[in-house]
Write a structure and sequence with these properties.
Elements lengths: L8 E2 L23 E2 L10 E5 L1 H7 L1 H13 L1 H24 L5 H54 L2 E6 L9 E2 L6 H12 L18 E2 L22
Parallel strand pairs: 3-4
Antiparallel strand pairs: 1-2, 5-6
Length: about 240
Amino acid sequence: MTSKLLSTLSIAALLTACAFAQAADTNAAPAAASTTPNAIIAGPQKVAIINIQAAIANTNEGQRDLDALQKKFEPKQIELKSLSDEVDNLKKQLAATTANLNDDERNRRVQSIETKQKTLQRSLEDAQNDYQTQSNEIAQRIGSKLMQTVQNYAQQNGYAVVMDYSSQQSPILWAAPSTDITKPVIEAYNQVSGIPAPAVSKPAAPAPSAGVNRRPPTTTTPAAPKPAATTPTPK
């Protein structure tokens, strides 16, 4: 950063010379200019980066609440899987026997499969939307508190700017690993929240990397699992 030096120049006062008997002249002698620099020199500004989405998901509170949400939707996932398997089996049965069916029976089975397929699709979309809504509520609740932790950490460590790189639209092209404060912010948040780490029953959400090179992948909340791919309904 270019330093800008501002200085002021003071003008010396006029001095009165000695007067002679017949002269009343006053000689002005300029004194040496005195400068008192008033420098405003701004030092280098520290910049940090953070993966805010990963930070939310990897706090103890985030892991606890997202795990609880996943368990809440497990019965729905089982229901959707069962319905998907039923539709697939009906399609396989129809494909295996279609040559032996009359038109009425074939059409009846096709309509039944299509009805179940539509029910499955609606149920799946409803479950995904409901899951996404509730996971977003968790992220917003934790995120609003996490921002205070980010601010406190930045101020305590002399950072002038903190930039989020969790989005694919992030303007960050490259940053040194030492500028990534995701992990220490998570630790600071856990300390303030007082929520203990969840029991290790399965691998936790992947920890954020130490640095960022180019555009890092976005950390997203997992959506409700989709049912297995189904074969087209035989006509």
